[in-house]
Amino acid sequence: MEPSTEEKTITESAATTQGVLFEIVEADIPALDAAEGAGLHYEKIALVLEDGQRAFTYRALQRQDGIAPFEWYLALIRAGRREHGLGLDDLADVTPIPDPEPDRPGFIAAREALVRAGYRDWRAAL
After folding, report:
1. Could you give the angle at which helices 71-83 and 105-116 cross, rounded to 10 degrees?
2. What is the pLDDT of residue 8?
3. What's 32's DSSP letter?
4. How many C-beta atoms surround the C-beta of residue 21 within 10 A?
5. Distant-in-sequence, close-in-space partners of 75: CB < 8 Å, separation ≥ 6
6. Cβ atoms 51, 9 nearer than 8 A
7. CA distance 111 to 76
8. DSSP E strands: which ranges in 49-112?
9. What is the band of 90 on the pLDDT scale with cuts at 50, 70, 90?
10. Could you give the C-alpha distances from 34 to 16, 29, 55, 58, 110, in angstroms and in order?
């Protein structure tokens, strides 16, 4: 997956959000859906961007106040935003929680990805 060099904005009603648009080979979409828990934890939403391009994103199915992300997940989000020049202000009040399962595959993959991105200690991305 390669990010496009263009900044994209998703608009729904009066709300907008910035993000990075990745080009994904059609054959890889089922694996991405499975990794993201499409239909189980997340709904897949088809989008038409301001420039007419089609895209999709995932949105949590069960949104509840008081649910906090694991530290490693928030570290990935913050590191990705920094890499692509997106702001962190809206994450200032997000307080992550430690993952009680340090051998969780997602936690291991996150640590490895952050090391590849140049973070010697994944916590530095927080």
Report:
1. 30
2. 52
3. H
4. 19
5. 96, 110, 114, 119, 122, 123, 125, 126
6. no
7. 9
8. 54-60
9. confident
10. 26, 9, 17, 12, 17
**What letter would DSSP give residue 26?**
G
10-19 contacts at long range (C-beta below 8 A, 24 or more positions apart): 10/47, 10/49, 10/57, 11/50, 18/86, 18/87, 19/57, 19/86
Q: pTM of the entire structure?
A: 0.76
What are the structure tokens assigned to 4, written together?
Answer: 């496009």
Q: What would the pLDDT profile of 46-89 be if each residue is shown by its tens digit?
A: 888 878 888 888 888 877 777 889 999 999 999 999 999 999 99
Mean pLDDT within 38-49: 83
